[in-house]
Amino acid sequence: MTQTANLYGRIFITCNVEAVTGLHIGGAESSLSIGGVDNVIVRDPLSNRPYIPGSSLKGKMRSQMEKFHGLPQNRRIGQVHIHTCATADAYAGCAVCHVYGLPGELPFSTSTRLVVRDVQLTEESVADLQRAKTDLPMSEVKWEAAIDRVTSAATPRQMERVPAGAVFGPAELVYSIYEAGDLARFANVVEGMQLLQDDYLGGSGSRGSGKVAFTEIEVSTRARGSYTTKLPYPGGTFADLAALTEHLEAVQQWLASEAVPIAAAEEG
Fold first, then answer.
1. Model-level pTM?
2. With contact defined as beta carbons under 8 Å apart, do 9 and 230 qualify?
């Protein structure tokens, strides 16, 4: 049977991502020549500025959602395991696979709803970090020590981090609407952002790195029939994730009635 994909519209979340503590998202080993640091960060190859890969944000949100909903880690990708639904019935009620995607070879797989873009440092943060004269370009070197549990001998090591207070933005999360149920599933995107914010992003989170905060959050949409017109949520910008969560029901009602009224179109 031929499947038809009906894109009714998209919801856009734009925001800043603030590093509340030092942020380490690992880069390629070839970057070791920069100051001889043991664990380097990922950098834009053109500007040499630190950035947050969209894959890091989306992957962490997915991982947290899988844990929060107690889903089996049943598919191996390289050295890690993730959850993928094994049956169409499981997929129909899954809080993760609709939003974050399934392997295309599965017969019940549909289009991934969520796209997460790479996030660059804001120009203001670039200027602040350049003025600060950090250990390395726009980053700090954090010294740690691995302690032998038997001899108590310490092995020092270095880790590169983006300093606390740096702001990346604007981040953009794009959520596509293919069926009426996707409007309700939009809450799972916000839930994933909250779970990430309460945990950490990147490496060494259990040792203090990687706490981030989503700020200056804007919600907007484009709908089929008037897709060239981008409609902002009339309630304005949310200062932080707590404010968005508090008004999430109102946002979803606005999306359903004014922005992406797909339920009636689908039933018709």
1. 0.89
2. no
